[in-house]
């Protein structure tokens, strides 16, 4: 089942690698026998599921999170391997969604209005008055 990133982008299962190991934490007697910890490995630099422009943007935004173009997601918060697999898939999808999102529009700089300047100066004056009244005038 492919991992949906956006409405028109999904990562096929063939590009995902799974590793399983024993998890620390709660689990009772089964904690020593069940490989419930999950590591999901995705080769972002070598993927064919995303356009090259989005891959470059994602690699730039992820920075050190992507080691040699590879993203590793670990999940061990649940006792069951299946739930940890689902959690890892959700985390990968959200991580990639944020990494490939279009940058926000650039801010057009504006100057403060006359009213804002006046209110700022009044607040400064009021604050100075409060501090002046707190002073100890006796020496």
From TrEMBL:
Residues 99-139 are annotated as: Disordered. GO terms for biological process: rescue of stalled ribosome. It holds the Pfam family RF-1. GO terms for molecular function: peptidyl-tRNA hydrolase activity; ribosome binding; translation release factor activity. Residues 8-134 form the Prokaryotic-type class I peptide chain release factors domain. It comes from the Bacteria. Residues 108-119, 126-139 have a biased composition (Basic residues). Belongs to the prokaryotic/mitochondrial release factor family. This is Ribosome-associated protein.
């Amino acid at each position: 089942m492919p991992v949906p990133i956006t409405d028109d982008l999904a990562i096929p299962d063939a590009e995902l690698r799974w590793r399983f190991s024993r998890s620390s934490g709660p689990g009772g007697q089964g904690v020593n026998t069940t490989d419930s910890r999950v590591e999901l490995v995705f080769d972002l630099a070598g993927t064919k599921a995303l356009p090259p422009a989005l891959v470059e943007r994602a690699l730039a935004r992820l920075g050190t999170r992507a080691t040699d173009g590879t993203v590793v997601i670990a999940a061990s918060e649940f006792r069951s391997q299946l739930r940890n697999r689902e959690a890892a898939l959700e985390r990968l999808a959200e991580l990639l969604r944020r990494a490939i999102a279009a940058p926000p529009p650039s801010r057009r700089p504006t100057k403060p209005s006359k009213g804002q300047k006046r209110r700022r100066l009044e607040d400064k004056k009021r604050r100075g008055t409060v501090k002046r009244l707190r002073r100890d005038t006796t020496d």
